[in-house]
């Protein structure tokens, strides 16, 4: 065989091998399917998905969707997950083959031997390593889901906190108007000797306090707007997002106690730790395989004296048993640590659920008390006071006080409503792991 023919065969072999594909590992196809399903909606072809147009009339779900698609934190977690899915293929693949050349030169080139070498990890090693990579990719998905839920919660909290000052300002202006009317009447009564100076000073003190509170509320709107802007993923140099014209409240809050069962099934931190345990178990299988030798096989051809071939075979000798034993013991310790962290997270989940479900029930009871009992009672009391004022049996100060009580209760109701919405969002997103409505890419469980 002529030298040029042998060299051509090796070159052709290299080109053929360059197009080889490995065999997918167990779980690799599912991991890619899950990723492609999410990517087609979240980042189709690595481009930002179509962002909903935000207007003052946009719904809360539109704002949440915009925040999830625009958040750099969620995007970073998504690409971390993407890299971990690709790592499965890298991990389960054979090492790249090698083309070798040997020559012997005395006075002239007397021998030229091109060759081909391939390393083969011991039986089961690639499969075991792929098992670790699959589990790690699952953990990265739940980190992505956790980032998305945190972003949704941050948006809803900023949304309700942004709406509260608007309502508080309206009610505070009403309070100031009532106090100003009361001050004018008391000033006139004091001049006529019908009201004492302490009564007038007391109303003026309340008026000064209400004006300061109004200034604080007006000033707080800027910080709440910045929080809302950040929750939407807007950069500092971007213009402010549109201010919602109205703020939605949820009608149905669901069964709070049922959420505990859902939490054990969906909580992303818990699911990530379960994946960490599976990764640790797979790592044990990997280190046990370290006791199996790796092999290398190759073939060289003598160009100047064909058809003379030099087969080559080698293998590693895993003789350091103390090293292997230490690797096995370390992997088992990692698994025990992962299991302990999972148990701790399960305990923390129950405690966290108890605290946040209590906050949710408490704010719900407070809101129901104010809206269903205290405000109707204050309305009734105001009607009686108004009738008494018209009949001349009640003075103007008593009428104003009754009106102020009603305004104060309306303010408390607004605050309680926001507290309840935030508490329920915290419980449903951060503890139970329930995805926001109309966000299909968080539903691949």
Protein architecture, described:
The protein has ten helices and four strands; from the N terminus they run ααααββααααββαα. It is of the alpha+beta class. The relative contact order is 0.13. The protein is elongated. A four-stranded antiparallel beta sheet has the order 1-2-3-4, covered by helices on one side. It has helices spanning 3-18, 28-42, 60-70, 72-92, 125-191, 197-231, 258-266, 268-289, 321-391, 396-431; strands spanning 98-105, 109-120, 295-302, 308-315. α5 packs antiparallel against α8 (268-289). It has one domain: Outer membrane efflux proteins (OEP) (Up-down Bundle), CATH 1.20.1600.
Strand order of the largest sheet: 1-2-3-4
The second-level CATH architecture is: Up-down Bundle
Give a quick account of the main beta sheet: strands, pairing sense, barrel closure.
4 strands, antiparallel
Described by its quaternary structure, the protein is single chain
Calculate the terminal CA-CA distance, rounded to whole Å. 60 Å
CATH fold annotation: Outer membrane efflux proteins (OEP)
Show the helix and strand layout:
Blueprint: H1 3-18, H2 28-42, H3 60-70, H4 72-92, E1 98-105, E2 109-120, H5 125-191, H6 197-231, H7 258-266, H8 268-289, E3 295-302, E4 308-315, H9 321-391, H10 396-431
Antiparallel strand pairs: 1-2, 2-3, 3-4
Helix pairs in contact: 2-4, 3-5, 4-5, 5-6, 5-8, 5-10, 8-9, 9-10
């Amino acid at each position: 065989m002529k030298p040029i023919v042998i060299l051509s065969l090796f070159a052709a072999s290299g080109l053929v091998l360059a197009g080889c594909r490995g065999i997918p590992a167990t779980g690799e196809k599912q991991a890619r399917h899950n990723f492609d399903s999410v990517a087609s909606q979240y980042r189709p072809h690595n481009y930002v998905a179509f962002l909903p147009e935000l207007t003052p009339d946009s719904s809360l779900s539109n704002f949440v969707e915009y925040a999830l698609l625009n958040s750099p934190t969620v995007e970073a977690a998504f690409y971390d997950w993407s890299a971990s899915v690709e790592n499965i293929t890298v991990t389960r693949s054979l090492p790249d083959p090698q083309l070798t050349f040997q020559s012997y030169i005395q006075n002239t080139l007397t021998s030229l031997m091109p060759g081909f070498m391939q390393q083969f990890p011991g039986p089961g090693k690639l499969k075991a390593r792929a098992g670790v990579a699959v589990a790690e990719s699952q953990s990265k998905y739940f980190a992505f889901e956790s980032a998305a839920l945190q972003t949704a919660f941050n948006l809803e909290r900023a949304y309700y906190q942004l709406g509260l000052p608007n309502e508080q300002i309206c009610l505070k202006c009403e309070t100031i108007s009532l106090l100003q009317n009361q001050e004018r009447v008391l000033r006139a009564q004091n001049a006529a000797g019908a009201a004492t100076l302490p009564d007038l000073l007391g109303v003026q003190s309340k008026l000064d306090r209400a004006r300061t509170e109004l200034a604080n509320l007006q000033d707080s709107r800027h910080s709440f707007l910045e929080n809302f802007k950040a929750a939407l993923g807007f950069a500092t140099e971007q213009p402010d997002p549109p201010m919602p014209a109205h703020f939605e409240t949820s009608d149905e809050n669901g069964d709070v106690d049922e959420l505990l069962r859902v939490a054990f099934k969906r909580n992303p931190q818990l699911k990530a730790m379960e994946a960490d345990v599976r990764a640790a178990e797979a790592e044990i299988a990997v280190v046990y395989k370290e006791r199996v030798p790796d092999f290398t096989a190759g073939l060289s051809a003598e160009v100047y004296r064909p058809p003379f071939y030099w087969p080559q075979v080698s293998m590693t000798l895993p003789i350091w048993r103390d090293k292997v034993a230490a690797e096995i013991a370390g992997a088992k310790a990692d698994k025990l640590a992962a299991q302990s962290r999972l148990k701790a997270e399960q305990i923390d989940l129950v405690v966290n659920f108890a605290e946040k479900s209590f906050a949710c029930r408490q704010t719900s009871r407070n809101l129901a008390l104010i809206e269903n009992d205290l405000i109707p009672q204050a309305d009734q009391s105001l009607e009686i006071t108004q009738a008494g004022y018209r009949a001349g049996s009640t003075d103007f100060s008593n009428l104003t006080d009754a009106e102020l009580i009603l305004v104060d209760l309306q303010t408390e109701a607004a605050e309680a409503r926001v507290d309840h919405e935030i508490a329920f969002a915290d419980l449903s997103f951060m503890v139970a792991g329930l995805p926001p409505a109309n966000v299909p890419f968080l539903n691949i469980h």
